Amino acid sequence: MQVMQKAPDNDSIIRSLILGVFLSITAIVDIAGLMWSWPRLPLSTETGFLTITLLAGYLGGCVHSLQYLTWAHSGPRSAVKQYFWYLISTPLAGAGIAIIFYVVIRGGLVNDARALNPFGVLAVSALAGMFARQAVRKLHDIAEALFDPEENDDKLSG
User: Fold this and answer.
1) Cα dist from 29 to 17, 80, 100, 121, 158, whole Å
2) 57 with 131: CB under 8 angstroms?
3) pTM given for the model
4) pLDDT tens by residue, 108-121
5) Using one digit for the tens of pLDDT, what is the confidence trace for 112-154?
6) Do residues 98 and 125 touch, judged by C-beta distance below 8 A?
7) Half-sphere exposure of 9 toward its Cβ, with a 13 Å CA cutoff?
8) What are the residue ranges of helices labelled H in 38-117?
9) How many CA atoms lie within 13 A of 12 on its CB side?
10) Residue 31 in contact with residue 60, Cβ under 8 Å?
């Protein structure tokens, strides 16, 4: 039995176009912010790295939302109306997750800001924003390893 696909209505197409334009403009503004701030930031300071992290995480979230928007219209049915707020909030969540990811890595692995590679920070931050769900899962694993009382008791007594 073949299921007929329902064509998206005009409302859904207009909503998708507006959302796509919004995400594209914010991504372009974000890229411009990175390009403008990169030479002006003191990259040996925390402020410079946090700015790069915030902008790159936001950009990763925009890329994720644009990919999802494309998938929603090429799939069996239009999911834009259903996931509108998810698509809008993903760039903001990506920026927040990138900051948290940066702080966890910075606090645990690298003690000196001068030892950090700005391109590495940019890459990890953009990936954390783009793959926020997986980044949160990894942060959950780290938190479980740190705060699981049963496992820590076994290590202390053993």
Assistant:
1) 18, 23, 23, 20, 54
2) no
3) 0.73
4) 777 666 677 778 88
5) 666 777 788 888 899 999 898 888 888 888 888 888 767 655 5
6) yes
7) 2
8) 46-74, 84-108
9) 15
10) no
